[in-house]
Write a structure and sequence with these properties.
Helix content is about 70%, strand content about 0%. It has four helices and no strands. Helix 2 packs antiparallel against helix 3 and helix 3 runs antiparallel to helix 4.
């Protein structure tokens, strides 16, 4: 898990220093893979389930979905003609890298 966190941090750092569609794509791939891994680990460790009133697992999944939504919306914007990643604000990049 620590190695995954390091890879995510490296990808986010690259995105902050060199914003591009490719670096955002890389971040999204890393985060998607990491979140899937983390959710699987949490299931196996008994960290709750989606139907429970308080479930660390369910809350984590919601956070992961929110973070991924932000990033994939930004990627979709860049796929439109005449759009570039230079229009992405620092706050958007920072939101994408929110705590996992």
């Amino acid at each position: 898990m620590d190695q995954e966190h390091e890879k995510c941090e490296e990808a986010l750092s690259l995105l902050l220093h060199t914003p591009s569609v490719q670096s955002l794509t890389n971040v999204m791939e890393m985060l998607t893979e990491h979140f899937q891994s983390k959710e699987t680990l949490m299931k196996h460790c008994g960290c709750g389930s989606p139907g429970e009133p308080f479930s660390p697992y369910a809350n984590h999944v919601k956070d992961h979905e929110r973070i991924l939504d932000i990033g994939y919306v930004e990627l979709a914007k860049r796929a439109e003609p005449n759009n570039s990643l230079s229009a992405m604000t620092c706050s958007t990049v920072q939101e994408t890298g929110a705590s996992s």
